Amino acid sequence: MKISLIITVLAFAYVHAFAQKSVIDTSVYGKWASVGGIQFSNNGQYLSYEINGQPLKGSTTVVKATTGNWEKEFTNVHHGSFSEDSRQFIYKTGKDSLCLLTLGSGELKYITHIKTWQMAENSPWLHYRLDTPKNQMVTYNTVTGQQRSFDNTINYQFFSAGLAILFRQDKTDQQVTMLWADLSKDETRTIWQGESPGDLVFNIDGTKLIFSSADSSKTKKQLWLYRKGESAAVTLKIDTLDIDHLSNFSFDHTGNKLFFSVTEPATKPNPHPALASVDIYSYKDAKLQSEQLLQNQNHTFTYVYNITTRQMIRLAGPNEEIKSVLDCDWLLVEQNNGGNDEEWNWNKKSLRSIYLVSIIDGSRKLITENIPEPVCESYQLSPSGKYVVYYDLKVKGYLTYNTVTGKVHDITPGEKVNWASDFGEDNALPYRSLAGILGWTPNDQAVLIRSRYDIFRAYPEDKIPPIDLTNGYGLKHHLSFKLYPDISSPSGNMIDPEKRLLMRFTNEDNKSEGFCKISPTQPKDPEFLSVFPGMFWNPVKSRDTAIYALDIRSEQSAPNYYLTSDFKKFIQITDVQPQKSYNWLTAELVRWRTPDGIRTQGILYKPENFDPKKKYPVIFFYYEKITGQLHNFLAPQYADGQRIDIATYVSNGYLVFLPDIHYKMGHPMKSACNTITSAVNYLKRYRWVDTHKMGLMGHSFGGSETNYIITHSHLFAAAISASGVDDWVSAYNSLRLNGTSRQSYYELIQGRIAATIWQRPDLYLENSPIFKSDKVTTPVLIMANKKDDAVPYEQGFEFFTALRRLGKKAWMLQYDNGGHGLENDTDNKDFTLRSRQFFDYYLVGKMPPKWLTEGIPATRKQIDSGYELDTSGERP
What we know:
Largest sheet: 8 strands, mixed
Structural class: mainly beta
Oligomer: single chain
Helix content: 10-25%
C-alpha cells in the first residue's frame, strides 16, 4: 500500500534506557497512571480530563485551554461539567461544596451544603439541592445569574434549556405537588397533585408530558397528560387497558401519538396435589421444557394511541419485536413462532417473518417469511420510510422493498462482493456478520453499504448499477473502512452528498490505522489524511466547533490525548507514560505458513531488555484472530481467567506469542493445533527461544484448544486451560443454565462442525480431547466453575478426573463466585498468582508453591492459600 502522506507530528517516542528499570509485579496493579474522562466546552476553547492512578497524587482533574498556556489542576473532583456558555467549569469537591471556576482567569466561586447537583443538557441552568432542613432546591442560570429557590423539593427532571418538572412534598403530607417550571420566563405552574408520580415522558419539543400516578385509595394507576399552557394535567383514559401494566412510553415525532407496552402477567393455576410433579418433554415443543420453565411467561403487547382521536392500535403482540421506529408512518416488526432463535437451521418454529406495520391504522404487509434470526438483523427502514433494505441469503446481496408498491429490487446485482465484516469469516453460518449500512442520502435517493473492504453506493430502485465509491482500493490493499464519527445505526442516517465522508481505516496486513476522505457520489481512490502505527479510541468532539480529541496509543506508548481539527495534524495534550519506569515490552508481527499452506500472523512480545544471547521461555495465548491488537497498550492488571497479563510476564523475562487461527470447517481443534505447533516450528529457528520451556494458556474456546493440543503434542512443558470443553459428544446435547440446548453452538457457531453428531460422529470424536487423555505428558492447570453458563462445569471436571485416573500431573481450580470468567478482585488476584506460580515453576525453574506440591484439603478452604514456596525439596 502506497500512501504519500504519513503523519509526522505524532511520534510514539520510546527510550531504550534499560538500566535500573524495575520489573512489573502485582504491587503496580490498580496504581497504574492513566488518562480518561475528556470533555470539551461547547465552543471548543477549553477541555478537561482526568489523570487516575498516580502513585503520589491519586486522581486529578485538569482544566485547560485548547490553545495557549492557561491550565488548572485539581484533586478530589467529582463529575465536573462545562457551563452552556463555555465560561465556567463546575465541579463538586470531596466535601459538600460546588465550585464554579471561571475559565481563563481561574476565579473560584463556592456554593456550600450541596447534596446533589446537575447541569441541564444544552442549557445554562444549574440545579442543585441543599442539605438543609427545608430540603431546598435552587436553579441558577450560569449566564445571567438568575436564581430561584424551591422548598421541600424531593425530586426534579429537566427536559430542555428552560423547562423543568419539580416535585414538592411537605413532611406532614403524602401528597406530591408537581410543578411545571418555565425557567427562561420565570414562570411556575402547579399542574398536578397526588401520590407516587412516575413514568414521565416528554414529546420532542417539550410541549406535552405523559406521566402515571398510583393512589393508595384506588386499586389502579392513572395516566395523565399535560399540554403546555393549560392549567393542569388531565386524566388520559385508555379504557380497554389495565393502566397498571403499561410501560415503555414514548411519543412519535409529531407528539400526537403515544407508544407504550402492555404486559399481561401470566396466570399460573395452582398445582393439583393428586397429580405427579413431572416435566413432560415433547419433540413437538417449540422450546425445551427446561427453557420454558425458566423464561418469562408474561405476554407483552405494543400499542400506539392517538391522543387527539383517542384511537388505539395494536402494533405488536407476543413473540413479536419492533425493530425500528423512525419519523415516518411505518415500523418494522419481527415475528417468530415461539422457537429458540439458535435452532433456526432445523426447527421451523424458530424461523421468523418481517412485517411492515402502519402506525396510522395498524395494517400489515409481509415482507419476508421463514428466514433465520441472524438475517433479521439486516432489515432496516430508510429514513423517510420509502424502503426497507435487507440482506438476502439467496442472492447474497441487498434487496429493497418499496413500502408503497410492494415491489422488491435487487440493488447489488452482479456484484460479487463479500458483504461480511471480518468477524466470523471462518464461521459455519451461511450468514455472517455484515459490515452493514452506512447511511442514506436525502429523500432516500441512495444508500451507502459497507463491504468487507470497500464502500458502495446503491440505488433503491436498481435503475442505476451500484457504484464502488472507494474504487476497489480497500480490496486491493486489505483496508477496511468505517465512517468517522461512526453514525451508522439500525435506524439509518442521513449522508450529505455535497460533503466528502471522513473515514477511519485499518490495514489488515500491518495493523496500522488512519483517516481518509471519500466521495459519497463518485468512485475515487480515498484521499489519505494520516497514517500511524497505533490505535485510536474514544473520539470526542466539541459541540460547536470542528475540534476533536482522540485517545491514541501503541504497544509502547500509553494512551494519551491528542487534538486535531483536520485529521492531518495532531497536537499532544497529555503525556502520561508509566511504562517508562519499568522493563516494558516490544511487539512485532510475525508471519508464517501452517501445514495447510495458509498464511497466518501472530504477535511476538519481547522484553525491552531483550538479549538475543539468552534463552527465553515462551507462553502461547490464543483466541480466534487476535493480531488486530498488535498496537494496543497492555496495562498490567489481574487476570480474570479470560486474559493473560502480557505486560507482567514479559517484564519478568517471558516471551508471549499470540497467533491468529484460521479454521477449517469440521476440524477447528486440529486447525488450532496445526497453527500453534507450526508457530513453534517457526520460532525454533531463533536460538533465544527455549523450546524446552514453552507453555500454553487458553480460555473458553481457547481452553478447548489447549485441551486438544496437549493430547496431540508433547512440545509443551506446562498448560493452563480455563473454562474449556473436552468432550464434544457429551457437550453437544447438554443444556445451558438458561435451559437452552448447546447443539447450535457446535453445528453452526464457534464449534464449526457444520453437521449434526449423527451426520458426522467422527468429527465430534476427532475434536474431543477426552478420548486421548492417556497421551498427555504436559502438566496442566484447569479452571472450571460451577456457575459457568457458557461451558458446562462437568467438562473441566471430567477432564481433570480422567487425567487424575491416568496419573497425569493435573490440578483444577473451582471458584464458588466464578462463572465463565472470574467476577471479583479476590478471585482475579488468586488466579493471577496461581497461574504465575505454575508457569514460574515449570517454565523458569523457580521453587514450587505448596498448593502444587501438597494441595489444600477441603477442610482448609479459605483458611490456607498454599501460596508459600515449598523449600522441602518436594516436587509436584
